[in-house]
Design goal:
The complex is a heterodimer of chains A (318) and B (432).
Chain A: H1 6-31, H2 40-60, E1 63-64, E2 72-73, H3 77-83, H4 86-117, H5 124-136, H6 139-149, H7 156-159, H8 161-164, H9 173-201, H10 205-213, H11 218-229, H12 231-246, H13 250-255, H14 267-277, H15 281-306
Antiparallel strand pairs in A: 1-2
Chain B: H1 2-26, E1 37-44, H2 48-61, E2 65-72, H3 76-83, E3 92-95, H4 102-106, H5 114-119, H6 122-125, H7 129-132, E4 136-137, E5 140-141, E6 144-145, E7 150-157, H8 158-164, H9 172-184, E8 188-191, H10 198-212, H11 215-221, H12 231-245, H13 262-268, E9 272-278, H14 281-288, H15 290-295, E10 297-300, E11 315-318, E12 322-325, H16 332-340, H17 345-353, H18 363-366, H19 373-385, E13 389-391, H20 393-396, H21 402-414, H22 419-427
Parallel strand pairs in B: 1-2, 1-3, 8-9, 11-13
Antiparallel strand pairs in B: 3-12, 4-5, 6-12, 7-9, 7-10, 7-11
Helix pairs in contact in B: 10-12, 10-21, 21-22
The chains are: A mainly alpha (318), B alpha/beta (432).
Domain ABC transmembrane type-1 (chain A): 92-302
Region (Disordered) (chain A): 1-27
Keywords (chain A): Cell membrane, Membrane, Transmembrane, Transmembrane helix, Transport
Chain lengths: 318, 432
């Protein structure tokens, strides 16, 4: 009974729905879609605040400009310099590394927390609210806070020598990257938890009832119902994490300043450094464009691989 | 029906867009110097109290009124460079002299102060020469000292020294011996805020000066890259390496910062015995640990180095801050009157009252009125008698080179680059 009843229901439902949907679409084009005019304000804003600056940055990347004199055309100089700049190549790797580590740490955490928070346990609402607090703090405040907490002589490492050794977390590359990933996860896991909580709540209860009748326990339900049902949510959340990871900036600015040396100089920080600290706006613009290109390629790959572009229904088995 | 729904909504959208655009345009419409006013731009911090007072004094008698604008925080140089070639540029602005104004001089934005000095020689003769000369670019004066001098001193915790049975080191060998003793006692011999990078740079400045004299850096600053590869340069680097390898700074100095209070706390709590820091260390400690400052904060000059060419009386640090004048100012006479206030008795007293040490020749008259006269007298004599006052490297070079210098000094202390790597990094700097 349990295995047969959903299938015909789905079939019936599908048959009944399909013609209706087609009809709605046909009439919908005529009534509720006014065409391009509706897109004009948004397009104008986008052109003004996204496309235009991007074009200006592209132009600047072919100039030599310190912000004082007029920009002087420099041909491909900035680009040629970038190719031979090992800090630039290293910064791309660091950006990707921090992004990948961020996704790897935050995804399992936020899925577990999100699924837990979607339940009906006692104290759940109170604890969920507490978990949510880091997201409400500014990234700058969070970074300043952790910088102080991780002071090797007066902070947490001084009290836990067995774990942190000499406490030189921010003075070596692996430690500094670890701190950046940790602080990023501490702040942004709540956001992704929220997404997963909502998605988990949207999973139809009947699936769990059916599984329970078939004798599946909590763990089995989690792996065979919850996780597959969260697939599209995972893609959404991961894309947000990738975007956030590649554009990480404030935590680096405050926690490490790209150091020690250039060990945590990720692309976004390197761009800032070149343009606004070294007053080489041409070089900074070239880095910015590289970052745009890399981010575009990565998001295209993610969309392709994950099937986000097709976005199949997640109501599998219903 | 379709048309009716379309029109008002499109209109609404258009209005919103127009509003947005006009808001965006507002940012550019406020004008810089209005009629009858000169704008004075300074770095925003506690010293603004004095600058406000001086501006008020100026406005009492002047027809052209001065307006004080401040840019708070560490981004002063970035923001200044953003506005200095625009309409919003001030008439007079705060800077660090030397490298910090060199790009503006090159761009032809600044007024040489020769003509002012010709009218009032006091604009030059009333300041200590070593300080005044920091704002001389290409042989012409571009700045008038307007705050206090900040030499770098070797601070110590008297109690820690006493407990370890050591005295203030007068030679490099003393320092090495002290380091060994303190390490044996489980102390971090020297507190270092390596996370800020510029405190590390101070060690380079002093050791280079003691070993090679001020000439080496001056030569390098003119663009002569061979200076960095000289035997003196290599000797200085090997001395620094020796100190780091002896464990003088402990092993987690790059996770410590001065700016968040980390390294001053090491000194105040007695976990460390020494800290090489600018004279502002005194007020920093006084704010955070008043009792320690009163009883146990000691200070002295950097030790001498046997066989070195530099004079042991040389100092390094921030010579002072300066007011420079933009060429485009409409009221040069008013500007000159304003600059003359920077050596007035009122100016000196106001600065001394908040712990700053002005560099005017009339300063000694008032030193006894300060809250910590012994400390200020020590510094004033140190600066006055110093054969050379080397400006911090990151301020002697143009701001565009700061990151490269800071990265190099940090990586050398970390052992990530060796002497050859450091020399190569410094040779890669552009002096103009």
């Amino acid at each position: 009974m349990t295995t047969t009843s959903p299938a015909p229901a789905a079939a019936q439902d599908g048959q009944a729905r399909r013609p209706a949907r087609r009809a709605a679409r046909r009439s919908g084009t005529a009534v509720t879609r006014p065409g391009f005019a509706w897109a004009v304000p948004a397009t104008l804003f986008f052109a003004l605040f996204a496309i235009l600056p991007l074009v200006l940055v592209a132009v600047l990347s072919f100039t030599d400009w310190d912000g004082l004199d007029a920009p002087a055309f420099a041909g491909l100089d900035n680009w040629r310099a970038l190719l031979h700049d090992h800090t630039m190549i290293q910064s791309l790797w660091l950006s990707v590394l921090i992004t990948v580590l961020g996704v790897a740490v935050q995804t399992p955490l936020s899925i577990l927390l999100g699924v837990w928070a979607a339940g009906k346990q006692r104290n759940r609402a109170v604890l969920s609210a507490v978990f949510f607090v880091p997201l409400l703090l500014s990234a700058t405040a969070v970074s300043v806070l952790w910088r102080a907490m991780l002071d090797p002589n007066f902070g947490v490492p001084a009290q836990a020598r067995w774990l942190f050794g000499n406490g030189n977390l921010l003075g070596m590359q692996s430690g500094a990257i670890g701190v950046l990933v940790f602080v990023g996860a501490w702040q942004y896991t709540p956001f992704h938890t929220l997404i997963y909580q909502g998605a988990t709540r949207a999973i139809p209860e009947v699936l769990y009832q059916a599984a329970a009748l078939d004798g599946a326990g909590t763990v089995r339900q989690f792996f065979h119902i919850t996780l597959p049902q969260l697939r599209n949510t995972m893609v959404t959340s991961m894309i947000l994490m990738v975007v956030g990871g590649l554009t990480t900036f404030d935590t680096v600015l405050i926690l490490t300043q790209g150091g020690p040396g250039t060990d945590t100089t990720i692309s976004a920080y390197y761009m800032y450094q070149q343009a606004f600290k070294n007053f080489d706006y041409g070089g900074g613009s070239a880095i910015a464009l590289v970052l745009v290109l890399v981010a575009t390629v990565i998001s295209l790959v993610v969309v392709r691989v994950s099937g986000y572009d097709k976005m199949r229904s997640s109501s599998e088995g219903l | 029906m379709k048309k009716r729904a379309w029109l008002p909504r499109a209109t609404a959208g258009g209005v919103v867009l127009a509003l947005g655009l006009s808001l965006a345009a507002c940012g550019g419409s406020s004008s810089g110097s209005g009629s009858g006013r000169i704008h004075v731009l300074v770095y925003g911090d506690a010293t603004n109290k004095v600058e406000k007072q001086i501006v008020a004094t100026f406005n009492k008698t002047s027809k052209v009124k001065a307006v004080l604008d401040t840019i708070p925080g560490a981004d002063y140089q970035q923001k200044l460079q953003g506005i200095i070639s625009t309409k919003q540029a001030p008439d007079i602005f705060y800077n660090w002299g030397a490298g910090s104004i060199q790009p503006f001089v090159k761009a032809g934005l600044l007024m040489p102060l020769d003509s002012f000095i010709a009218k009032d020689p006091g604009l030059k003769s009333n300041f200590l020469p070593s300080v005044f000369n920091t704002a001389v670019v290409d042989g012409k004066p571009y700045g008038i000292p307007m705050r206090g001098t900040q030499p770098v001193l070797l601070f110590n915790n008297k109690k820690v020294l006493q407990d370890a049975g050591i005295s203030e080191p007068t030679t490099w060998d003393d320092l090495l011996a002290d380091v060994k003793k303190l390490k044996a006692e489980g102390k971090t011999p020297i507190a270092l805020g390596g996370g800020d990078q510029w405190p590390t740079q101070m060690w380079f400045e002093y050791v280079y000066d003691r070993i090679a004299g001020p000439g080496l850096f001056e030569k390098a600053l003119t663009g002569d890259k061979s200076a960095w590869d000289s035997p003196d340069s290599r000797k200085a680097l090997s001395m620094l390496k020796q100190l780091v390898d002896a464990g003088a700074f402990g092993n987690n100095y790059d996770s410590v910062k001065f700016t968040d209070g980390g390294s001053p706390a090491l000194l105040a709590t007695g976990k460390a015995a020494f800290e090489l820091m600018g004279s502002w260390e005194y007020s920093t400690e006084q704010d955070a640990n008043a009792d320690f400052t009163k009883s146990d904060l000691g200070y002295g000059s950097f030790p001498s180095m046997a066989g070195g060419k530099g004079n042991a009386a040389d100092v390094v640090g921030n010579t002072n801050n300066y007011y420079s004048v933009l060429k485009k100012t409409k009221y040069p006479d008013a500007v000159m009157q304003f600059l003359k206030l920077q050596y007035s008795d009122e100016f000196v007293k106001a600065h001394l009252a908040i712990g700053n040490l002005p560099t005017t020749t009339n300063t000694p008259k008032f030193l006894d009125t300060a809250s910590n006269p012994a400390y200020l007298k020590y510094q004033f004599n140190l600066v006055k008698q110093a054969p050379s006052f080397q400006l911090s490297w990151d301020q002697a070079y143009p701001p565009s080179q700061t990151t490269a210098i800071h990265t190099a000094v940090q990586e050398f202390f970390d052992g990530k680059i060796n002497a050859d790597g450091f020399i190569k990094a410094m040779q890669g700097l552009s002096a103009s």
